[in-house]
Amino acid sequence: MQIETTVPMVIDVDAELDKIARRYKSAGGVGINVLNLIGGSAESLLDQLPDTVRRNLETATVAALNQAMRAAHSSRSVVPDQKSWLNQAVSAAMGAAGGAGGLPTALAELPVTTTLLLRVIQGVAVEHGFDAAAENVQFDCVQVFAAAGPLSGDDGADLGFLSARLTLSGKAMQAVIAKVAPKLAVVLGQKLAAQAVPVLGAVAGAATNYAYTSYYEDIAHVHFGLRKLAVDADVPHKELLVQLQDRMARPLVKP
Q1: How many Å separate Cα 82 from the centre of its chain?
Q2: Residue 175 CB partners (closer than 8 Å, separation 6+)
Q3: Residue 113 burial (CB < 10 Å; 0-12/13-18/19+)?
Q4: Where do runs of H (alpha helix) occur along 39-102?
Q5: What domain range is 48 assigned to?
Q6: Which end of the chain is more exposed for a tag (fewer CB within 10 A), N or C?
Q7: 87 occurs within a structural domain
Q8: Which helix H or strand E contains 21, and what residues bound it?
Q9: Does the residue 67 lie in any domain?
Q10: Number of domains in the chain
Q11: Residue 28 contacts residue 154 (beta carbons within 8 Å)
Q12: 203, 180, 20, 13: CA torsion to nearest 10
């Protein structure tokens, strides 16, 4: 009788890390084109917002994240994960609608877009083999937002969001939302200001939403790709993170 033996899959960790690093470095590149389209810098965009809006940005961001997390998860039983191009198209359409009416409609659209972004991030988690219903995966989905966004001026070198973890408890999600909210509030404030640009509001809204969807999808692939590699290659996540940080300091090399 012939006994079949299963040969363990050999994973080229270096090659996988190179792919992850390339994706991280290229994430948000379209955001630069967005800034060129609407004119001005991210910093000057924030100055365009009314004082009351700027003061309440963090509160609004926390509310949007809380609402989005519940809505994104509950929608999974109704609407299946979509292709990347469709997510970007839907997001751009929502951004255009939000920007068409200036700041009031942009504020109303903010939680809806946040929900879509979280849903996209959840879809990437599932694509990498993780359970979107698991509490630690939901935690990671919110944590991906800590990578800021394409208009934040982040050059992709800050990998803190990849290693920051909290002990999961009943209040863990609120803790991570509170941690992510201040940084995300600045980023979403830039998005709101872009949509409030006179005449170009709808165009800027569509462009920024497209950029954000593309950016967070890439960042989610970095986040969950690194976690999957740690499991598949049986290498500690922190060790892979150190190697990824080293690659991020090098010039981008195309395969």
Answers
A1: 16
A2: 166
A3: buried
A4: 42-47, 51-55, 57-74, 84-100
A5: 30-218
A6: N
A7: yes
A8: helix 13-26
A9: yes
A10: 1
A11: yes
A12: -170
Evaluate whether residue 23 is within a structural domain. no
Torsion angle (degrees, nearest 10) of CA 86, 92, 98, 99: -170
For residues 51 and 180, what is the distance between their CA atoms, to the nearest angstrom?
A: 22
Q: With b meaning 16 or more CB within 10 Å and e meaning fewer, what string describes 204-240?
A: bbbbbbbbbbbbbbbbbbbbbbbbbbbeebeeeeeeb
What tokens appear for 163 in the block? 């290693």
Token pair, residue 177, equals 């939302």
The residue type of 183 is K
Please give the biggest Cα pair distance in the chain.
79
Q: Is residue 18 part of a domain?
A: no
Amino acid letter, residue 197: V
* pTM > 0.70: yes
- Full pLDDT tens readout for the chain, 255 residues: 455 545 456 788 999 999 999 998 888 777 667 666 666 665 677 777 888 888 888 888 888 888 887 787 777 666 667 777 666 777 777 767 766 677 778 788 888 888 888 899 999 999 999 998 888 888 888 888 878 777 665 544 456 555 544 444 556 667 777 777 777 888 788 878 877 776 667 887 788 888 888 889 999 999 999 999 999 999 998 899 889 888 887 775 665
Q: Which two tokens stand for residue 65?
A: 């994240």
